[in-house]
Amino acid sequence: MDHVRIVEVGPRDGLQNEKQNVSTAIKLELIERLASVGLRDIEVTSFVSPQWVPQMADQAEVMQGLRRRPNVNYSVLTPNLRGFEAAVAAGASEVAVFAAASEGFSRKNINCSIDESIDRFVPVLDAARRQGVKVRGYVSCVVACPYDGAIAPEKVAHVAARLYELGCYEVSLGDTIGTGTPGSVRRMLNAVAARVPVNCLAGHYHDTYGMAVANVHASYEFGLRVFDSSVAGLGGCPYARGATGNVATEDVVYLLNGLGAVTGVDLDALVDCGAWISAQLGRENGSRVGRAVLSTRS
Ligand code: HMG
Ligand code: MG
């Protein structure tokens, strides 16, 4: 049987762009509910500048308030050594560094060029190796960039290979603005897989154009077995205007259940979690599967 690892990014990617203040207590309850439905990898916050992403300013409180379960991996985003050190001091045992395949997005998102961002990651990976902290790598704009337009698959492969060679155990490929289709995603994966083993790749697809489930499926057929998603499809990137949330976790689990893959997630309980957080935020539930399941219950 095929096992698929789902990396739940709702508490980080899903909430980082939320304009209303989301209390630390709600974030912690969301994380706990996600863990209780069987999600084993949860990205819980980011150690970035609070001026840049105010919603993540309570990162240390979130880490402190976690009711850590031994079988759950709680990871965080870190843009530089300062973020890494703060994350480790707060108890993080896995971090993620994030680069982009486009210069325009790199500048807007982390205020430096792609090369400079990789230079910043070198000391992070060195320190992580010394301290036994796992590091995941992200590449944003793997299909297109809101500032630079279409991105060549070879550029994505180049940045992904650099992250992998630096020591990232896995590289997550972000279709940040959700314009990818199975065709463009497959072309991108072909280029990346020539440089990074497929079993070290993850798909991270935003759903702006409604293609994210199709892109997960195409990537699954390509051989990927790790996908990032966000409960109730929460989210959007603060530095990618108009981009909507990640593919909904409920939709990914439903797709994978139908393919006979094993995720370990209880779909019904996950739907409840999606309904709960949508109500807390006063948002429409962004999961098609979530809405459908809920409508059969009423
Ligand atoms: P900068 O302004 O170039 O950095 O920001 P700086 O070194 O000049 O520092 C400026 C200020 O930030 C200073 O404070 C630093 O101390 C502070 P001041 O002296 O002005 O009071 N600072 C920090 N504070 C807290 N934590 C830190 C930190 N580092 C510096 N780690 C920086 C550079 C990278 C910090 C900034 O651009 C930043 O925080 N960017 C984060 C942007 C972000 O979080 N974007 C969303 C996540 S990425 C994403 O969503 C995509 C993804 O989902 C995949 C996909 O979908 O494609 C992963
Ligand atoms: Mg994202």
TrEMBL record:
GO terms for molecular function: hydroxymethylglutaryl-CoA lyase activity. The keyword DNA-binding does not apply. Keywords: Lyase, Metal-binding. Its EC number is 4.1.3.4. It comes from the Bacteria. Residues 4-271 form the Pyruvate carboxyltransferase domain. Coiled coil: none annotated. PROSITE patterns: HMG_COA_LYASE, PYR_CT. It is an enzyme of class 4 (lyase). Pathway: Metabolic intermediate metabolism; (S)-3-hydroxy-3-methylglutaryl-CoA degradation; acetoacetate from (S)-3-hydroxy-3-methylglutaryl-CoA: step 1/1. Belongs to the HMG-CoA lyase family. This is hydroxymethylglutaryl-CoA lyase. It comes from Caballeronia udeis.
